[in-house]
Amino acid sequence: MAWLKKLVGAAIVLGGAAAAAGWVLSAPVRLDTGAVAQLGPGDAAKGKRIFYAGGCTSCHAKPGSQGDARLQLTGGLELKTPFGTFVPPNISQDAKDGIGAWSEEDFANAMLKGVSPSGEHFYPAFPYASYARMKPTDIADLYAFMKTLPAVAAKAPDHKLSFPFNIRRGIGLWKLLYLSPEPVIALPGGAPDKVLAGRYLVEGPGHCGECHTPRDFAGGVKKGEWLAGAVAAEGSGVVPNITPDGKSIKSWSEADIANYLETGFTPDFDSVGGAMVEVQKNMAQLTADDRAAIAAYLKAVPPHPNGYPARKPAS
Amino acid sequence: MRKLVLAISMLAFAGSVAFADPIQDRQALMKERGKLAGQLSKVVKGEEDFDAAAVLTTLKALQANAEKFDAEKLFPAGTDQGDTTAAPKIWEDMAGFKAAEDKFLANTKEAVASPPGDVDGLKAQLNTLGGDCGACHQSYRVKKG
Fold first, then answer.
1. CB A235 within 8 A of CB A81
2. Number of domains, chain B
């Protein structure tokens, strides 16, 4: 029976080692000092563009608010997903309920590393897996702009998640798999500036891939089906395929795409709908050049078949 | 007796044909609405010259279209099934759905009452009307594959 004891002993040692390794690997990682030094002082005027490119209001505005009231970033919207209900927090300038007490470095760690000032992982429902591709100077500008927004006291409720997703530490392992500042689509050398600018806006601040790309079992986006569309992670229905093989977008010109982002009308005069309504309002705040760049990039990405099942025939 | 049953079922069939499918009716109304918005957009985009009379005709057509939109008739219970992208929320929140439509109707009336004098005026009105489209489609329509 000595062999059995040895086996059990070995299993305990191995299991312990795996647990220890898991603990080490899942630790929150902050920006290094070199990256922090790149932030520099932000410019609020420039940050406004990043704010709208980033679509912060879509999730963090006071639910149901309109117009300027959408700059009251109280959070509180309920996003019901298969992992549980995520509630975007208050990111207004309130020092207690919001992020008014955060330093620029705190803000950059949240945006680029998904780590809170207290050193916890944020859930990737906050799309830092996309924001991680942003330029440090844009983060600084955004921070400066958000400083100009109102402080609104209102504590958003906590997320309501089921096991094992309620264990934040596990997100550290998720980050090892899915968090990278590298672009998703490697464009050929000599790609036009417009396409590169569009790639930055779409893959970084715009975080389009978070909804328009299908996810794997662990909730990471399938980069091999980038922008192929997906069953909506929140709400009902599907999010359309926006690669050049997408049913609608296939026939749209770059000008059509840019016009849709500006006005909310498709070329055949259907209107924007669903969660894209708020996104389009944000896109309308960008410059015409930014919208044209997004359109140019969408025409340059690899085509994919739809990342969602075909519509059921009418019953 | 058999003849009577046949006759009744034929009558019922004829009846169901006479009352056209509400799903098709509402889709036709929406398609027309989109087409009219498209005509205005061509002017805003500069693809067509601004012609005040033509623009007013289109705005009036939009108002007429909005007046035909009877939520109770076009969205009877059970028509969330079938070849439709109508969201279940329509039937959960009929009052909100009607309010969204009423807002569109009110905005078309306003546009007809004070028709735009130039492209910029039209652009502002189309923005408002387009915003109404989006506001309703945000909650009351589901994208399907």
1. no
2. 1
ipTM score of complex: 0.82
Question: In chain A, where are the structural domains located?
Answer: 37-181, 183-309
Put simply, the answer to whether B130 touches A259 (Cβ < 8 Å) is no
Residue A115 sits at the chain B interface (C-beta within 8 Å): no
Chain B neighbors of A280, CB-CB under 8 A: 134
B22-41 confidence digits (pLDDT tens): 999 999 999 999 999 999 99
Contacts of B83 in chain A (CB under 8 A): 314
Is B34 inside any structural domain?
A: yes
One-letter amino acid identity for A238?
V
Mention every residue, 6+ apart, whose C-beta is less than 8 A from residue A80.
A234, A235
Confidence of residue A64 (pLDDT cuts 50, 70, 90): confident
Residue B54 resides in a domain? yes
Residue-range definition of the domain harbouring residue B103: 21-140
Per the document, the length of chain A is 315
Q: How distant is the Cα of A209 from the closest Cα of chain B, in angstroms?
A: 17
- Residue given tokens 């100077």 in the structure block: A137
